[in-house]
């Protein structure tokens, strides 16, 4: 049995804004096994970044993690319990901020963000930053750390690493800077790396290079990843398992093969149809129709019903959360979960109810959706 190293259970993160409560992450559950790359995919605003940050408790005011549990191996990264006054309070075993920082600083969990310039200090050379990071986290001497830094720069495919060691961040291209961040993330051989769209800003060729690099290094170091992306192409190339997010929820959860070849949720279907394929011209691409509603006032029932080509009246009434939809009597079958009531497992009267008119069917970006999109659930 492979070990589960990250376990997320019913995690909820909200932002308390003047306009109202933004339910950015609204009860997501998934886990990550040792040596596995797990994707979080969805359109802009789905809650992917907030989910990634919540795992590491990196949520600032006016945001707050309001429920759920996050476990990393035997540590409780986040967990609440009812206090003596009936209010929820952090559980005793929850790691202190100091312990949390120590775990995240690179030795156990590392993070890679989209913009390397935010993570690199412009006034120090790349080599010095990498060396110092290694020196602190791995208790090496300055010389040893420098050697290791150069070794890591070479590992991530930076040409002439000895010379590049002396350069400042601005002397690197975007792709090269991203490689530096990957080197930094891997330098302390963490068991888990959380990557939030680290290749999104790069051109396709460079992105491809970086993805294959990650694949290669992942094999070598057996690192687990949570990989945030809005790009199904990246998912196909990199991930073992995927969570599809829509408006703060996970609507489908499967292995990459099952997700692509046995798609169970209309939103996933729509994302896949919007993805460029070699057998299609750009004109044949179908972007997901309509826009994602605000997380402040999500549609009642299924949150995707306002854009779903399969939506029926029952979808407006029932708010489905992910259920197992695969045939799990067969022990070989991997879990495949979907939050769509058209699957028999839900028994929510889908097939007896009338189809509803939505934007996605008519292709009109009209007001058809406004009636049903009011009032949360
Ligand atoms: N500081 C904040 N204050 C208020 N709302 C926020 C804040 N940060 C995020 N949100 C809201 O939380 C929701 C989820 O945002 P998030 O950044 O996680 O989306 P995402 O899936 O990462 O999108 P993208 O692909 O654009 O990065 C959005 O509705 C966003 O507006
Ligand atoms: Ni994001």
TrEMBL record:
It is a peripheral membrane protein. It is found in: Cell membrane. GO terms for cellular component: plasma membrane. One of its GO terms (molecular function) is ABC-type nickel transporter activity. It comes from the Archaea. The complex is composed of two ATP-binding proteins (NikD and NikE), two transmembrane proteins (NikB and NikC) and a solute-binding protein (NikA). This is Nickel import system ATP-binding protein NikD. It comes from Haladaptatus litoreus.
């Amino acid at each position: 049995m492979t070990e589960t190293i990250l376990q997320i259970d019913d995690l909820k993160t909200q932002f308390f804004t003047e306009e109202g409560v933004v339910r950015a992450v609204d009860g997501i559950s998934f886990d990550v096994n040792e040596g596995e790359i797990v994707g979080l995919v969805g359109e802009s605003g789905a809650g992917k970044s907030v989910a990634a940050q919540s795992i590491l408790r990196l949520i600032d005011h006016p945001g707050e993690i309001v429920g759920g549990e996050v476990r990393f191996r035997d540590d409780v990264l986040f967990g609440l319990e009812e206090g003596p006054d009936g209010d929820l309070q952090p559980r005793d075993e929850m790691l202190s901020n100091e312990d949390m920082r120590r775990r995240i600083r690179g030795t156990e969990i590392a993070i890679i963000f989209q913009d390397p310039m935010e993570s690199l200090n412009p006034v120090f050379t790349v080599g010095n930053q990498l060396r110092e990071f290694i020196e602190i986290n791995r208790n090496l001497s300055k010389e040893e750390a420098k050697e290791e830094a150069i070794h890591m720069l070479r590992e991530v495919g930076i040409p002439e690493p000895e010379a590049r060691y002396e350069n400042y961040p601005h002397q690197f291209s975007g792709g090269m800077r991203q490689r530096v961040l990957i080197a930094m993330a891997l330098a302390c051989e963490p068991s888990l790396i959380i990557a939030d769209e680290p290749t999104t800003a790069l051109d396709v060729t460079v992105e491809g290079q970086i993805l294959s690099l990650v694949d290669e290094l992942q094999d070598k170091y057996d690192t687990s990843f949570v990989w945030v992306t809005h790009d199904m192409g990246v998912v196909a190339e990199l991930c073992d398992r995927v969570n599809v997010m829509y408006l703060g929820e996970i609507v489908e959860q499967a292995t990459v093969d099952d997700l692509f070849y046995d798609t169970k949720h209309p939103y996933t279907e729509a994302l896949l149809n919007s993805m460029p394929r070699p057998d299609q011209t750009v004109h044949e691409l179908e972007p997901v129709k309509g826009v994602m509603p605000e997380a402040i006032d999500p549609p009642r029932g299924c949150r995707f019903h306002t854009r779903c080509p399969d939506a029926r009246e029952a979808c407006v009434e029932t708010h489905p959360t992910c259920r197992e939809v695969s045939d799990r009597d067969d022990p070989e079958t991997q879990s495949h979960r979907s939050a769509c009531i058209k699957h028999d497992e839900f028994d929510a009267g889908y097939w007896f109810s009338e189809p509803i008119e939505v934007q996605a069917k008519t292709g009109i970006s009209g007001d058809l959706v406004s009636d049903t999109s009011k009032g949360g659930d």
